[in-house]
Write a structure and sequence with these properties.
The chain is of the alpha+beta class. The protein is built from two helices and ten strands.
Length: 187
C-alpha cells in the first residue's frame, strides 16, 4: 500500500511539473505541435540568414566552463555577422591598445550551411582590421546552438546557447515568456 501511495504521489508530481502551452485563444497546444512550430521557426530564421543566438555557457580550451549571465551572443543579418562574446584563453597576438573579448560587426567573407542530424551546421569566415575569424555554428531543431570561434591570434573557444525565435508562447502560469530584446546590429 505504501508503494502504491508513493508511486501515485510521484506520478502526480511529475504530471504537475509538465509545462502546458496555450495559443492566443487560450486553447492548449500539444507538445508535438510546439516542437514542430519551434523547428519551423528555426529553419525559417536560418533560411532568411537573420537570427540572433544568446550564449549562456563558455567553454575555454584551458580551464572549466563558465556560465554567462549577461546578453552575450552572435547575430547574423544577411551578409554581416556581429559577435559580442567574452574571451578566456591564450592570446598569441594582441593588437596595440586592444584586448578584451570577441567584439565585432563585420561583413561575412564566406557562409556555408550543411544539414546534419536534427539541425544545421554553418561555416562562417569574417575579418576585421586585426585578425580573421573562422566560426562553426551548429543550430539544432530545438533552437539550441553550439558555436566554435577560432580567431587567428587566439586559441579557439566554444559557446552554447539558444536561438531567439521572436515567438511568444504563454506557459500554464499565464505569464508570457520573453527575453529582453538586445541587438548587436540594426536588423
Amino acid at each position: 500500500m505504501r508503494r502504491f501511495i508513493l508511486l501515485f504521489f510521484v506520478a502526480a508530481l511529475i504530471a504537475g511539473c509538465a509545462t502546458t502551452y496555450y495559443d492566443s485563444a487560450g486553447n492548449p497546444v500539444p507538445k508535438e505541435k510546439m516542437e514542430q512550430l519551434r523547428m519551423e521557426a528555426v529553419r525559417a530564421h536560418l533560411g532568411e540568414h537573420r537570427y540572433r543566438i544568446f550564449m549562456d555557457r563558455m567553454y575555454p580550451m584551458r580551464g572549466p566552463s563558465v556560465y554567462l549571465t549577461d546578453d552575450w551572443g552572435i547575430e547574423v543579418s544577411g551578409d554581416s555577422v556581429g559577435l559580442f562574446l567574452p574571451y578566456f584563453g591564450r592570446v598569441y597576438q594582441i593588437p596595440y591598445g586592444r584586448g578584451g573579448g570577441l567584439s565585432l560587426v563585420e561583413p561575412l567573407i564566406s557562409y556555408k550551411e550543411e544539414p546534419m542530424k536534427e539541425g544545421h551546421r554553418i561555416f562562417m569566415t569574417t575579418r576585421n582590421d586585426y585578425e580573421s575569424y573562422q566560426m562553426v555554428l551548429e543550430v539544432f531543431d530545438n533552437a539550441t546552438a553550439s558555436l566554435v570561434v577560432n580567431p587567428s591570434g587566439k586559441e579557439s573557444i566554444r559557446f552554447t546557447g539558444v536561438m531567439e525565435l521572436n515567438d511568444k508562447f504563454t506557459p500554464k502560469s499565464g505569464k508570457t515568456a520573453q527575453r529582453r530584446q538586445t541587438s548587436f546590429m540594426k536588423l
